[in-house]
Specification:
Helices cover 45% and strands 16% of the residues. The chain is globular and about 60 Å long. The structure holds 4'-phosphopantetheine. The site of 4'-phosphopantetheine has 9 residues, from β1 and α4.
Length: 178
């Protein structure tokens, strides 16, 4: 949605855990940028989960991937997503839909969010076919077990996965020596 002079710009929030950002997420953000004037990638601060990367690390990776892209903003949020979207004056939420298996959860969330804020639409975008089986959870599992994830995550993320693994290995080795 390109803005015409005088018209307000159209903003969308793309919320998620992004632990870590995958090439599928990048694909969705690119598609969102083709529709909206600004896409806010909003990383959930979730106290309940035990993530691989801290929120700060995740934000830094996403900023790295989208540096030099003024229409992509990276932020964090907690509490209700609809309240965050309201504060950011967003017109829509973006969610990626990879397969039928995503549908039920996404459908429930979209309808609950609509109930909470009638003016906020959820827009579902499909990633390129090669990313339909990609998820942050699978990436972490495959990488941890020594599998190849090249191309499924941005190179910055692959590098950070390697560093994280090395740090964890060192920590484990240190603990064994005690
Ligand atoms: O990447 P994820 O983990 O599938 O993203 C889930 C997310 C962050 C979109 C969802 O958990 C969320 O919106 N959390 C914020 C709290 C909230 O508003 N919950 C009600 C959603 S219907």
């Amino acid at each position: 949605m390109s803005s015409t002079p005088g018209a307000s710009s159209h903003v969308a929030v793309f919320p998620g855990s992004f632990d870590p950002l995958t090439s599928g997420h990048v694909d969705i953000i690119e598609r969102g940028c083709a529709i909206f004037d600004r896409v806010i990638v909003a990383v959930l601060i979730n106290q309940d989960k035990t993530p691989l990367f801290t929120v700060q690390e995740r934000v830094a990776m996403i900023k790295d991937v989208f540096q030099g892209r003024p229409n992509v903003e990276v932020d964090t949020f907690d509490g209700l997503l609809v309240e965050y979207a309201r504060r950011k004056r967003a017109h829509a939420l973006i969610r990626g839909l990879r397969a039928v298996s995503d549908f039920e959860y996404e459908f429930q969330m979209a309808l609950m969010n609509r109930r909470l804020n009638h003016d906020l639409e959820t827009v579902f975008l499909m990633p390129a076919e090669q990313f339909t089986y990609t998820s942050s959870r699978l990436i972490k599992e495959v990488f941890k077990l020594g599998g190849e994830v090249g191309g499924l995550v941005p190179s910055v993320v692959e590098e950070r996965l390697r560093q994280k693994q090395a740090t964890q290995r060192d920590r484990l080795a240190g603990a064994r020596q005690i």
